[in-house]
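Complex record, two chains
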Amino acid sequence: MDRLSCYHCGDDCGKNTIAFDEKKFCCNGCKTVYEIFSSNNLSYYYDLQAAAGASPREVYNKYDFLENNAIVEKLIEFDDENVQVVNLYIPHIHCSSCIWVLENLNKINSSVTGSQVDFPKRTVRITYRIDRFSLKNLVVLLSRIGYEPSISLNDFDNKPKAVNRSLTYKLGVAGFAFGNVMFLSFPEYFDLATSTASGGEFWLNQYQGFFRWLMFSFSLPVVFYAGQDYFISAFKGLRSKMLNIDVPISIGISVLFIRSSLEIIFNWGPGFFDSLTGLIFFLLLGKFFQQKTYSFLSFERDYKSYFPIAVTRIPSNGKEEAIQVYDIQKGDRILIRNMELLPVDGILTKGNARIDYSFVTGESEPLSKVLGEKVFAGGKQMLGAIEIEVVKSVSQSYLTQLWGNTVFHEGRSDSFRTLTDGIGKRFTILVLGIAFLAMSFWLFYDSAKALNVFTAVLIIACPCAIALASPFTMGNMLRIFGKKKCYLKNAEAIERLALVDTAVFDKTGTITTTKRNVAIYEGMQLTQSEESLLKNTLRASNHPLSRSLYDMLAEQNIVTLDDYGEYLGKGIEGVISDDRIKIGSSDFVRDAEVLPEENTAVHISANNSYKGRFVFHNEYREGVSEVFRTLSEKMQLAILSGDNEGEKERLKKILPKLTPLYFNQKPTEKLEFIKSLQDEGKKVLMVGDGLNDSGALAQADVGIAISENINVFSPACDGILDASKFRQLDSYITASKKAIKIVKWSFALSLLYNIIGLYFAVTGQLLPVIAAILMPLSSISIVAFTTLATNMVGRKLE
Amino acid sequence: MNVIYLLLTLSIVVALVFFVAFILSVRNGQYDDSYTPSVRMLFEDELVGAEVSVDKKKNSPLNSGEVEEKEKLS
């Protein structure tokens, strides 16, 4: 297989290779980028990483709206008389070449004074002078070199968001104090200062008080600043009558602090300040570890991420102008260019509309609209430019209404009780019970020790290790999943995933690929000359269906057509010598109306006699039937599709028997379907891909979006799964179940430590040094155990 | 013998200096992006035009405690 790959982007060059500078390019765009780079001494780009580029897309006047100062102001971060700073999100950033070329933009245009890439977030912050340059020039420049920034309505108020770093500060404070207090307690550990009577170390006896008060002062910021979240959370839990895990933790911390302070005030002993600071440090460490987020993915998307920030308005005097989407008034006439999204509902007033609503409804067939018909927000114009008259503003359009559903506005975390909180309740009751029992026993036996034992029990049973088990297991699992291209929003999503017993799949784009590249020919055999003519006619067309059909047909010699015609929305026609071929919709090819078809078809006639048609089918992803078979053994399955029933028979062959199939589902119906399942007490996993599934994804216990390019977009969800990993879906669910098992084992392990500690506590012989050994030992061994165990599970994942 | 007060005070002051440095570095966003600088430093020098912020400190907030301990030992 001799495959030529493009020097710039690595795609297959196919038939129309462009040779330039002894290198091969797949298209003019790639060649142009190469020229720009090589003429600006930037060819090091290709040494860093071969074929890292992207073909630039045509940018006609797409960015004209950036000439509007009101819009520019919303996008930039900083502006003075001659310098502006902008932070742009560029989905294509994926390797070191990208970083390098974006940070050397000033070589291409000297008006750029600095640029800094933030790789994990896929953003670049660019500083540029505006005397001979502007944001529009910058965006066009970036697009020309294949790094088109994504600018959507979401960026409308581009204020630098305040990053919440409080956890890092708290961790710093706790770690700082923990280290110092450990040192200061050394003399106490070795018992060097027992008493002056037995001739302890004189020097340490002298300074004992000083050491202790120093420890006390170190612990103050730890308890009152670093540990405050636990108190707040415990208080909130108690107020809503819930005993979460933070309640026993708070009790432990307070008892530790109060008892230690009393000990040093009345000079009874050294206190437990080392355990106290260590405990809070480890707890925060767990929290910190769990905080892993995939910041370059957005799990909270709503319609704003899809909408353009501006549209072109055509006032009555005919002078086009760019206006902000929010400023569109009822009655305005706006221009929608090819491949642009309709931001509002309107009436078609000019042009050929062929609108793809797959985003909104899941219907994969674009609809043709005639003048005067209504078009709805969220549709994508597929065929040239159109003009529409606005009938509703953005906030009142159909699509926006969908987002009004409450499911998008309430966090689900309130209703979900994590494993840790579940054990927290029983644990608290148990510990308090033991503490009171032990205290009452000692009250009869030796009342002087009673309070000592009571506090000792509460101190040693502080569920530090239990609180660590889940964050470290889930945090590590989240990382492992991320390496395997399954990105989950947070640790809780893993717990939910382990519990699902019903899986609902969307069809189009989820279990089928987005490319339609299977076509079956039905009709009369074509002659050799007709086949060659067909292929050559298709070569000339840019319509997506022609392109995919062209790629499927056998290679033919390239011949120049004598005549070629393209009829928008109908089809194409090609002539060589006296052979004429028509390719397109049925009424274009033969002059009679035929029955509406359930599947996309391209009809062909040669010399005005009808030959046959190519029927396109959605291609199912690799391993779909396998995934369904394995899943059906464990849970109930269903298919929900916004599409028509055209694929029903094929689906039935692929899926296990009796899988319920539902077609023509509207987004709200999908949501209701999930809801009704949940009302039956089912835990539902929804797997979808588009805006039309977003309601269902948000409603389901776990919503996973399948995406062929994780940087492009995905609806709001709990997790994003790379499409190439679709067949592993089952193994992720199994792995999450194993993660829950690991957490439960860790609970058992930490209970073991607690029992050992309790033995010392109940018998009244808990010395600070024992607490200081047990506490970190249990925490560290739990962390080690969970890390090892999750890595073992992770190794089994493909 | 009162020199111990002086020594302890000094060591804590030094530790605090490190602690403040850590807080400031976090506040200035040094730990926000821990990946890009690691790639950036591998580029050919004459081609890097942007000012590069290199972490002089260890790359993890967890090490701050260690730093002060070493201070005290020395």
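Note: Residues 729-762 of chain A form the longest helix (34 residues).
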